Amino acid sequence: MRLTPLVIASAALALAAPAVVPAAAQARPHSAPPAAPGVSVPGGRYDHTVALTFRAGRGDTVRYTLDGTTPTRASRAYSPGRPLRITEDTNVTAVAFRGGRASVAVAYGYLIRTKEKPLARLVVMSDVHVGDHEHNDKKYESFFDTIGSVFPHPDAILSNGDMINDNGDGKGPDHRIVSDIFQANLKRKGMTGTQVLLSNGNHDDSLAMIRAGYPKAWFPDSGGGYYESDVKGVHLLTVNTETYDGDAAQRTWLKNRLAALTTGPAASRKPVLVQGHRPTAGTTMDGQQASNPGLAADLSAFPQAILFSGHSHLNVNDDRSVHQRDFTSVNDGSMSYVEVDHGYQMVTDNGLADRFEAPTAQALFVEVYKDRTEIDRINMAADKHDIYTGGQWSASWQPPYASAGTLAGPGWTVRLKGSTNQQIKDNFRYTAARRNTVAPQFTTRRPLTQVRLTGGGTALRVAQAVDDQLVHHYRVDVTDTVTGAKVLSSKVLSDYYFMPRPNALDIPVPDAVAGHRYRAEAVAVDACGNASRPVSLTFTG
Fold this sequence. Notes:
The protein is mainly beta.
C-alpha cells in the first residue's frame, strides 16, 4: 500500500496542543537506545490541516516516512521548529536515531476531512472473541481510546458477531464479560449516546444467551436474531446469517423492508446498511470463506444495500475486502486477529512458516453523508508479532500498541449515482471488472542481496517493492546451479498487515551448501495478481 503523498511545508506558528510523548521519552544514558519520538498532535480524525512537530530526546535525530514504511537513516530528517503540514489522509511513522542506535518505530494515523457533518458515524467491528477480563480489559481500553481518537462520540458501534469463543461448550455466560467491558469503556469515554448493535455469530452460543448477556437495546430482536434500527435517520437491518438461507420469515422480512426503504426517487439513492456475521457468496475477498447464497440473491435487487460482514477474519488492508456487483459488500476485518488468503508463507523468527494469521486487530469507521458513504479502515493494533509464542498460538498481545489508530489503507467511498437501480449498479466503482491493473515495481538499485543469518546459514534479502495499493507477496525461487535442484520455491507474504511495514524480508535459503552457486529470482505480486518484472541474484552459499 502506498498512500497519497502529503504536502510538507514549514509552519510559522507553534502549536497550542500539548505534546503527546511516550513516558519513556526522557534522557537516557548514551549507550541505551533512544526513546521513541512523540508528536504534538495525536493521530485521529481532523476537519482541518494538521501542523505536526516531533518530540525526542536531546541529541536525537528524528527521521520519518509518510508511506507506511519503516524509517531508516536515509529517510527524511525532521527539522525542529518546522512543523509538517498534513493535508491528506496518511500514516506518519517516526524513529529516533542517536549514534548507532535507533528507537522502536511508532506510527500515527491521520484522517483529514472538511467541516461537512455526516448524517451518522458508525464503528463496525466483528470477531471480538472475548473470553475473560485478564487478557481483554487493557486491550479494550486501548481499542476504545482509538475509537475515541477518530469518533469521540460515535452514533453507533456495530459488533458483527462472534463476541465470545463458544464452540458448543457452554461459554454463553461470557457475553456478560463483553457487556461489562464495553459498558465500562463507553462510560469512561463519555460515549453515553452511542448505540451498540449486535449480530449473532457462529461462536456466540444461542440467541437466548445473547439476550441474557446484554442490554435489550443492544440486541432488540423479536425472536429470530434479526431486527431493524435507526441510527440518526440511517436505516440499519441486522440479519442472522446463521439461519438466513433456511429462514423463510427472515428472508421475507428483509426483502420487504428493503423494498419499502428504497421506494421513490429520493429513497433509491439513500444507502441502507445491513450487518450480518457471515459474508455472502461470491463477494468480499473474491468469494473466499463465503456462505449464504440466499442472502446474496435477496440483496441483488437492491444496489442501495451496503452489507458489512465478518467471520472470515480476512484483513481489510486488501482492497478485495470491498466488492460491488449488485450491491456493496464490505469485510469488517477482525478485532482479535486477522487472516490472509491461504497458500502462502510468512517470515517468522524461526524461518519460513505456513502461516495465514497475524495478531492484528482492525475495524471500520463509517460516515454516512447525503450523497455518499465513506468507509475508513483503521488498525486497533498492528505491531509486528508472530501469532505463535514459544510454540503456542496466541492473539493476546497487550498494549501499548505503537500502531494504534494507523490507517490500514485509503478509505473507500460508496456513491449511489443514477436514476434507476441498473444505472446505480453500472456506476459502481469497486467491481471485479474495475480491479486494479497496476503492477508493483522494485525501485532500489539492488532489490536482492545475500545476507548471513545470526545463527548461521544464508538468507535472501528482498527489498520491498512499491505498489499503488499494496504488495501482497513475492514469488521466490532459488536454484542450485551446480546440481540444478530448486532449494526454495515459495510465495512469501510481504507483511503488509503490519504497521509499519518492514523495508526488507530476510528469507532463509535452506540447506545452502558452502561453495555452491545459486541463482535467486523474485517477483512482486499485488492483491489483484499484477506482477512486477522478475529480479535476480547469483550468489555463493
